[in-house]
Write a structure and sequence with these properties.
399 residues, alpha/beta, Alkaline Phosphatase, subunit A, nine-stranded mixed beta sheet, three-stranded antiparallel beta sheet, 13 helices
Length: 399
């Protein structure tokens, strides 16, 4: 059958409009069911979270001088030491920090920073230099290099409606769905069933058609696997009623069901706070805090927290001085936090940002984000970071 006739006869031209992104970005093979490695959970705060109003340098007068209208007042800060503290919304994160289960890295970034959301996120996603353009993600290249069990393809899951770049390797593609039950229903659609049921041998002579058939079959098998795993364990921990919390809830349930997934990816959007920042950021940080608090409690109740690493990052921080709209504009260096029951170095990895020594109004980066990636690849995943990062980056020895 010719590709053109195939599309016409199966109704594929119209059905592709509503098929979810994962059908067009996954290449899963056989499904397995025995997890043998540690869990990595990556949380992306999209939009450029203001790190200075999240991990607050309340002990530095320059902070208050630079932000007369939007600075978090000292009596509202959840103090972590004599210099820095957390935003008042982050009470659950404060508990995790005080339990010695969190490491905060200040002034993280990269040389020659870019203030574009898209370009800076690309740099973080691909682990490239600022003058280098890569099409594959750092976690996808971990799979490409065989750092996980080589006979398993079903290893990374994004709780989103499209596959994020970090999970896309040169040969490996991850899996993405923002709702397992809804995705399961999608595959009951007559269009999809018709395509799968009419998988003729002669399609092997047409590469595009063969790839489509294989993608649909593998994706159907994958969502069947996820759906069955999602029924194994229903948490009794109370999570907030929002999409981000539901994403973390699904992750905890899949982990507890021993799903064969090595990397989970979740996104919280909305941090581009150019105007009236305080209300927006308070709402978002509260969403993050309460969801992560429930997630960590869930993992601990099932003895999974020691084998789980949670990394939270944003594409850049904001400028030190507030703007005229009671917000902040795109900056450069930021903070990153790691959570686990297996940290060697908890608390603050380094000192508070030096607000008196800026680079054209921006924080100077002191830690390259690829040093954190090197730590994760070498010491958590158990691979060789130079094969993924194309250079040697010093380990931070955090876990």
């Amino acid at each position: 059958m010719k590709r053109r006739d195939f599309i016409k006869n199966t109704g594929l031209a119209s059905s592709l409009v509503w098929l979810p992104q994962f059908l067009r970005s996954s290449n899963f093979g056989k499904i397995y069911s025995s997890r043998t490695s540690k869990n990595l959970v990556v949380i992306q705060l999209s939009g450029g979270n203001d790190g200075l109003n999240t991990i607050i340098p309340y002990g530095d007068d320059i902070y208050y001088q630079s932000r007369p209208k939007i600075a978090i007042q000292k009596n509202q800060v959840l103090k972590l030491n004599d210099i820095q503290g957390l935003h008042s919304s982050m009470t659950e994160v404060q508990k995790i920090f005080k339990n010695g289960e969190m490491s905060i890295i200040n002034d993280i970034g990269y040389p020659e920073p870019d203030r574009s959301h898209f370009r800076s996120m690309d740099i973080w996603h691909t682990a490239s230099a600022s003058n280098e353009y890569l099409s594959s993600g750092w976690l996808g290249r971990c799979i490409d290099n065989g750092f996980f069990e080589s006979d398993k393809l079903y290893q990374t899951l994004s709780l989103d409606d499209s596959l994020p770049l970090p999970l896309k390797g040169n040969t490996y593609k991850g899996f993405s769905t923002n709702n397992i039950k809804s995705s399961k229903k999608t595959f009951k659609n007559p269009f999809v069933n018709n395509i799968i049921d009419h998988h003729h041998d002669d399609h092997h002579h047409h590469d595009n058609v063969a790839y489509l058939y294989q993608t649909l079959i593998q994706s159907n098998e994958s969502i069947d696997y996820l759906y069955e795993k999602s029924k194994v364990y229903q948490t009794k921990i109370e999570y907030p009623n929002n999409q981000f919390a539901n994403d973390l809830k699904q992750i905890a349930e899949l982990m507890t069901a021993d799903a064969d997934i090595k990397v989970y990816y979740a996104i919280l959007d909305g941090f581009d706070t150019h105007a009236n920042q305080n209300n927006t950021q308070q709402r978002l940080l509260d969403t993050y805090d309460k969801a992560v608090g429930a997630f960590v409690k869930d993992l601990k109740s099932n003895n999974l927290f020691d084998d789980t690493l949670i990394m939270t990052f944003s594409e850049f921080g904001r400028r030190v001085k507030e703007n005229a709209g009671r917000g902040t504009d795109h900056g450069t260096a930021n903070n990153l936090y790691l959570m686990s029951g297996s940290l060697k170095k908890s608390g603050f990895y380094n000192s508070s940002p030096n607000l008196s020594d800026l680079d054209n109004g921006d924080l100077k980066f002191r830690v390259d984000f690829r040093n954190v990636y090197a730590d994760i690849i070498n010491d958590w995943i158990g691979g060789k970071s130079s094969l993924v990062l194309n250079d040697e980056f010093k380990s931070l020895n955090i876990f």
